[in-house]
Amino acid sequence: MTDSNERVRGSTDDDLPADHAFVCVDCGRRWYYDRRSCPDCGRSSTEDSTVRLETGAVVATTTVETTPPDVGAPNHLALVRFGEVRLIAQAADGDLSPSDRVRFDGSHRLREGRDRTDPRLVAVDDS
Asked: Above 60 in pLDDT, residue 5?
């Protein structure tokens, strides 16, 4: 079954939005970082689709004060679980805590001189 957020992966890694994870069309496994094949069944990633990561839960956070010259400091990072998918991503600010609910939002450039922008993690407002 496919939902409206799934799409077939493009021809390059840059085609995959930061707020999407791979999903294997054979076994259903989901994973975040690009690999040539599904970590469980081995199906080629060129045949995999993706699914949008909706809402996740923060597991841990850290702030990096010393960054490469083209990355702004402080750089707030969070380890987040979106169901079975776990990833580390940039947070919009340093106010996140373990168990906070988050989603990807906005369009931010991580590195100076890079055209591509990606969303950052932001807290979900449950009010």
From this structure: no
The structure tokens listed for 24 are: 């294997």
> Which strands, in side-by-side order, build the sheet including 56-64?
85-90, 75-82, 56-64, 101-108, 118-123
CA–CA gap between residue 112 and residue 90 (Å, rounded): 15
**Which pLDDT score, from 0 to 100, does residue 106 have?**
84
Q: Is the pLDDT of residue 2 over 60?
A: no
C-alpha neighbours within 13 Å on the C-beta side of residue 32: 14
45 φ/ψ angles, rounded to the nearest 5 degrees? -70, -15
Say how far apart CA 60 and CA 96 lie, in whole Å.
9
Alpha-carbon gap, residue 41 to 14, rounded angstroms: 24
Mean pLDDT confidence for 35-60: 81
Q: Distance between CA atoms of 84 and 29, rounded to whole angstroms?
A: 8
Report the relative pairing of strands 30-31 and 49-52 from DSSP bridges: unpaired
- Answer yes or no: is pLDDT of 73 > 60: yes
